[in-house]
Amino acid sequence: MTTEDSPGTDVTGTDVTDADFRRAAHATADLVSDYLADLPGRPVWQPMDETARRALLDAPLPAEGRPLDELIGAIGRDVLPYPMGNGNPRFFGWVNSAPAPAGVLATLAASAMNPSSAGGDHADVHLERAVVRWIAELVGFPHPAGGGLLTSGTSMATIVCLAAARDRAARRAGRDVREEGLAGLPPLVGYVTGETHSCVRKAAELLGLGSRQLRTVATGPDGRLDTADLRAAVERDRAAGLLPFLVVASAGTVGAGAVDGFGPIADLCEEQGLWMHVDGAYGAFGRLDPAIAHRYAGLERADSLALDPHKWLGVPVDCGCALVRDTEELRGTFSLVPSYLRDESASALGWFSEYGTEQTRPFRALKVWATIAHKGRAGLARDIARCTALARRLGELVEADEELEMLAEVQTSIVAFRHRAPGRDGAARDALNRDLPAAVQRRGRVFVTGARLGGAELLRACLLNAATTEADLHLLLAEVKAAARDLLG
Ligand SMILES: *Cc1c(COP(=O)(O)O)cnc(C)c1O
Q1: For 180-200, how does the pLDDT look when each residue is reduced to its tens digit (9 = 90+)?
Q2: Which of 487, 177, 182 minimizes the C-alpha distance to 334?
Q3: pLDDT tens digits, 304-334
Q4: Cα torsion at 436, 442, 445, 451 (round to 10°)?
Q5: Which atom of ligand 1 is the closest one to the Cα of 253?
Q6: What positions are modified (N6-(pyridoxal phosphate)lysine) (predicted)?
Q7: The whole model's pTM is what?
Q8: Residue 190 resides in a domain
Q9: What domain range includes position 312?
Q10: How many domains does the chain have?
Q11: Residues whose beta carbon lies within 6 Å of some atom of ligand 1
Q12: CA-proximal residue: ligand 1, atom 9 (nearest)
């Protein structure tokens, strides 16, 4: 590589001058801007061709370094042309959003600072305190000073929250689970529904609770937790000498976007001394939309809430958040600072590493700050309201189409529907709907994924992108029907 400082010499790798960096940074900015500008006009997703795939899989360990410019060129050639598809307004798959432009830019700045946001007196740490408070304010959750932290995602936030729940339950039973473990305690029992995300089971397994001690409570036809069934299950387990301690409610299930009735669940949890945890990974921010805000009444009574700014807010991955009602509960679960070394002044919240599992922690707060600051509360609410309105519109279009049918009410911004497969039996209809998502994806014009709900195979379209248009909704259904004709034909 030639640089201004050392014309003609081959400076490989480490000797990056300011001029080298600036040139490559500008090239990166152009590359990323082109990528984002071109996204809507490209196929949503395409399978990678074998050569391109192999080039990545079999990439040899570089013996010598290469100049920055070359790396940027390689990213543009070998990586950016093969995206997952989220980012395109015709991507309706899973729960993966387009990146907020402000968050993309902030990611570069955050990595230039590269702090460990474990604790201390630097900007990233203070900014994380602020954005966690902002997140709590956005979803209407109480925020005692220090009552939460950013995590890699909701899977990790769930582990953090459930660990605090386990600690409290053990303590009430006269045990210090951190020192003594679970041995000797009656089994701790938690309550979920058939719609609860798998990350809750993973957390229960990791925390030594055992997935068998997670009871699956019935749901109503609306996909919401049946409180009468919950009460009966808790009473049965108590009578059997077990220790009910946890209820997991959903602020938007991943299958159909159902929001549990939090008020009655909170009543029961208070009465029975159970920890109420809410999985708001996908749906908690739906509370910003006045049209559906009523569904979330009582969310603020939970003991903990896990949610994902990297979903509906569009903060670039990764960014989850754990919020807790009782800050000391969380600190008591994770802090390894001996109490005699703590600063006990009122403002001393300690380090984030006392509230979760990570020691060295990334500077996630800047991309959250940028994303929220760019749109403001009003802009976020507008975008979210647009998504729920689009979802309801899509529901109407499905209902008006005789080849298709809805399988659940649209409560948030997920539309669960299927192809009727007229003239076929139930098994053939399930087979068709199971095969449909991949067939639609291969066509490249829209991207939708599937799920099983109440025993039926279905398609689920998740609306997270405010740039999606009504024409895109028509295209989605046209593509589903065209793919079905191919599969049935
Ligand atoms: C995405 C999701 C999770 C898991 O969160 P991650 O950020 O992927 O770890 C949990 N619950 C629901 C409802 C989700 O949509």
Answers
A1: 999 999 999 999 999 999 999
A2: 177
A3: 999 999 999 999 999 999 999 999 999 999 9
A4: 30
A5: 13
A6: 311
A7: 0.95
A8: yes
A9: 108-372
A10: 1
A11: 95, 153-155, 197, 199, 254, 279, 281-282, 308, 320
A12: 155
